[in-house]
Specification:
Layout (H helix, E strand, L loop, with lengths): L2 H7 L13 E10 L3 E9 L5 E9 L5 E7 L5 E9 L4 E5 L2 E3 L6 H13 L1 E3 L7 E7 L8 E7 L2 E3 L12 E7 H10 L5 H12 L4
Parallel strand pairs: 4-10
Antiparallel strand pairs: 1-2, 2-3, 4-5, 4-7, 5-6, 5-12, 8-11, 9-10
Length: 205
């Protein structure tokens, strides 16, 4: 199928109006700890039916942020391997975490990078390049992660300040390996896949 044929099959503009937003009539807290809260919304659906919807929210509205860190030659990226109990797997990931309330996102990225790996960008937080963000799980709630890129990483700390349940290993992987592993499905983490898409769209890899 040619590009012209495809244009005829897929309209360039929506032909139907967007679905209506649901109307929230009440919200109550079902559970909360230091990481997340579970909230129950009573909503009215577009057809008028009442419905109870379960949402997750990050405690204190903390934003997620992570970084694709390159070596000085820009041929390799810094990655971590970490067991994620929610899926019962060890995953390939980029260093990332949650910002503190009121913390600048770039500063949070540098802090998380240093705490998890001991590395930091040579130019500090000011040298980071913001790529964009992704909604982590739209059906569950407004959980958003912001993605940065950093170049010229250097080892600045011998020790780590990881969270209590944070056990990970550090790896330098080639950019070609990164792209190939996303393509093959070896890398499953949504943050990494989204970061690679941003890097490719911005012609940074």
């Amino acid at each position: 199928m040619s590009r012209d044929d495809l244009a005829e099959v897929v309209p360039s503009e929506p032909t139907l109006p967007d679905p209506e937003a649901w109307r929230v009539t009440a919200t109550r807290m079902a559970f909360r700890n230091q990481w997340v809260s579970v909230e129950l919304d009573d909503v009215l659906l577009p057809n008028g039916d009442a419905y109870e919807y379960t949402r997750l929210a990050v405690a204190d509205n903390r934003a997620g942020a992570g970084v694709v860190g390159f070596n000085k030659d820009r041929t390799h990226v810094l990655m971590v391997r970490e067991y994620r109990h929610g899926v019962g797997k060890v995953l390939w990931q980029f260093p990332a975490g949650l910002s503190y309330e009121g913390e600048d996102l770039a500063a949070a990225v540098v802090r998380e990078l240093r705490e998890e790996t001991g590395y930091a960008p040579l130019g500090g937080a000011e040298s980071l390049h913001y790529l964009g963000s992704t909604l982590d799980a739209p059906p569950l709630g407004l959980l958003r992660s912001h993605i940065f890129a950093a170049w010229d990483l250097e080892l600045v700390a011998d020790g780590f300040q990881r969270d209590t349940a944070e056990f990970l290993t550090i790896h330098w992987q080639s950019v070609e390996w990164l792209k190939g592993s996303v393509r093959s499905g070896e890398i499953e983490d949504r943050f990494v896949v989204c970061a690679v898409a941003y890097l490719l769209l911005n012609r940074l890899i």
